[in-house]
User: Fold this.
Amino acid sequence: MRLAYHAADRADALAARERLAGRYGEVPLDEADCLIALGGDGAMLDALHAVMGRAIPVYGMNFGSVGFLMNEAREDGLPERLAGAERAVIHPLRAVGRHVDGRTFEALAINEVSLLRETRQTAKIRISVDGRLRLNELAADGVMVATPAGSTAYNLSAHGPILPLDAQLLALTPISAFRPRRWRGALLRHVSQVRFDVLEAAKRPVSVVADNQEFRDALTVTINEARSISLTLLFDEGMALGERILMEQFAAD
Assistant:
């Protein structure tokens, strides 16, 4: 199997890349059968963005802190681990939006698309789903749409639901909601289209963050699943992503 590598900018991950490339070989990404991501979940997201639109699976080794999307950092027997790996296919979110000054932006996100207040003042956001107004005004630090794969990341820390990988759902989750005080978010069909309109945008500026891309001073953004784009993650046998998500729901800490 022809391997390419993506390493986080940290000494242990970079050293592992040198050892693995020397031991198992290395080819350019365009010629690879698999991309090996070395680092934490951030490195995995960067690697997945690198193969967006390419039929190249990604196998991660954890050199970070949490490493939810990664496998154990063990260099022996890599070809055998890859041959026996379980596959998880995910689809990113597509965010299409407009800045206050009229400029447009577009981005893909694997975990979530978040709207976040830029200043000390609470953001005010109108929410529509599939063309129908659902919440006239949310006053909060922000709001997000998360995929099942991303539901255990920022979404979970904002008290959003953990979604099974095959649930065909999206999580719509507020971040520190002030009004409506009791609104906890919603579960949406994966084919839903969500539109956020920023109210009082000049006074209460809001950023749109799609994974690691930020677009400041947003006025509106529409989010839907990019079903035509498929990404494949590889996991050691018995530790597939669906099983990890299920285990997270029974975690004691």
Summary: The first strand starts at residue 3 and ends at 7. The chain has two domains: 3-91+230-248, 93-225.
